[in-house]
Design goal:
This protein is α/β, with parallel strands linked by helices. The protein has 13 helices and 24 strands. The structure holds MU-OXO-diiron.
Amino acid sequence: MKPIEIAKGIYDVGVNDWNIRDFHGYSTYKGTSYNCFLIVDEKIALIDTVKAEFADQMLDNIARIVDPRKIDVVVSNHTEMDHSGSLPRVMHRIGEEKPIYCSKMGAKNLSKHFRQKLNFHPVGKDEELHLGSRTLSFMETRMVHWPDSMFTYLKEDRILFSSDGFGQHYAGYEKFDDQVGDEIWYHAKKYFANILLLYAPLIRKLIATVKESGLAIDMICPDHGVIWRKDPGAIIDAYDRWARQETEAKAVVVYDTMWHSTEMMAEAIAAGIAEEGVAVKPIHIRSSHRSDIMTEVQDAAAVVVGSPTLNNQLFPTVADILTYMKGLKPLGRIGAAFGSYGWSGEAVKLIMTELEAMKFDLIEPGMKVQYVPDSENLDACFAYGRQIGEAIKARRE
Ligand code: FEO
């Protein structure tokens, strides 16, 4: 298939990775794409590459437009190997003397990945690259997603090549947001919640810089998923909201269970929250991937966690999600804990300790039930749920 011309003389020469289902621990049930872009002007520039095993496919895509040896310059916006893995192969094909434009940190990090002498050109502040009728400029975007990350902007076409920023793990022949519709927003939110949330303070600054700069943007081309062209400002505004950690009147009740007792508690607590008119989603951890749970946490005002006590500890899947969540640094949530136990019952306290470490506002002391809850216990869980729902509503008044 001939690569899509996304604008005159600009081609998406990337690839779809239809079958990937686990992207270093993130569930990619829609696959993903590694986008890269060829700009054909007096000089020919390639922006980013793809994962190593897709190098041939990408080079074939390029060859349908131009002989790859005619590429004059490569821009590497990000070192992570889903975008740079095929760089040595590409350079071998196009000529190892050709310059690779990257950030200063990119030059260091790419060297440490590929351990070979390539012609890295760290871009200076305000540096421009003239391709003929077009001009590229560069913007450091540290930690979106690695310290080496940068955006590249094509002035005349008003296109922002944003690397991981604004991406979604989504494979498809549809290359534009308007061809997919609203479904894409879940994938964009999931990407932010699982890849970028912990860098929210830096992203807020970046968004403010982009907005203040008045940069005209007609199209945002991330390195994963679809291109934003319908209303590029909408995804920028969504990043602003997500980076501010704005939440909705919503709770997630995340739990695991051994003999359904903690599950009974989860449902009674969720019913209590719903009774207060607050949206609530009970999520059984082993029925849902941790990256989908984090997507729900992204806009939830309260995170309620339930675990049985096993060997005096948290149930292992609950420890897993708490560790994962803590690393991603959701802030400003209400936290609550519950669980059934047999004789020692440490789990609720251990959950509270983790939620406190995340600086959540706790609804203490949590809810513990020995063995199987009776109707009185379930009434108490329902009341605990109502208390959580009230706390969510109080915050929004
Ligand atoms: Fe898509 Fe940070 O790599």
